[in-house]
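Below sits our specimen:

——
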Amino acid sequence: MNAETSWQSWLGSQGAAVPGPYPVSQAAIGYLAEALEDERLAARLHAGEAVQAPPSFVTIASRVPNWRPADAHGANHFMRAMLVPLPVDSSVNTAIEQHYFQPLFCGDIVATSSTITAITPKRTRLGEGFFVTEEIEHRTQLGTVVAKTTNTMFRFRRGPQSSDGPRVVSVRPAESALQVPDGHVGLLSVPMPITMTRLVVGAGAVRDFSPLHHDVDAARAAGHATAFLSYSFQLALAVKALTGWVGDDSRITRLKLNLQTPVYLGRTVICRGTAPLDRRQACSLPFVLATEDGVCTMGVADIAEVKNI
């Protein structure tokens, strides 16, 4: 079987359900609150409230162990898109979209099953490669579908033009990246410096220990300027900003990120968005994550109507 036939055979293929290794816990939610410096979430935990997990926590709960004993059984992967046999040596996530149907509570165990829905050959400034898209379904131990994720990554063979790392978009964070329509208000989050400590604590909180997110030498070897935030931490950071803007009573039903350039070590990231003046109404809320390099991530969140105010 040649390489092309091999990867084409993966189109439409669905993997078996892979259970996450640990139940959702108050401690794990607390670790995430620490990494995000989320004062509101931390205060609720400290007060002993029965706090449900933030919606993007489904990604954390789904992640399989980064290490397991040699005699352990079970799948040892999180994303099947990384398993498609392709003639490549690098990868980068380009977009992720999550739909949230039910909240996660302490004690829930999340299993995921992934279907490869698209593999598209493409030449980009990073090199020759393939955009691989997978649909991931997240279920609890009761069989309840709590979320669905669509993830797209670019898997590629690096060319010489990518050796200095990806380009950045020259839009300063102080400049307006979003138009504020009538009846809406512009919103900002608290700026967050991306230190090495932040990268390490964040990697632990979201359980993503790819060397790209905490090892400068590994990141540079892969063609990046330095280490950078994972998409899982960006999801969590966006959720923190969104709930801070629209309130804990609001429910996020969809979150989509288009990842344009990494949030690098040494930068300061801020979330900017717009929201209706009436925070109780359902809305689609656009936002960006930006640093000194410019806009790094374009996002949009769907917020459900608040009915209990």
About this structure: The longest helix spans residues 231-246. The CA atoms of residues 176 and 272 lie 9 Å apart. Helices lie at 3-8, 26-36, 39-46, 57-62, 196-206, 216-221, 231-246. The chain is about 20% helix and 30% strand.
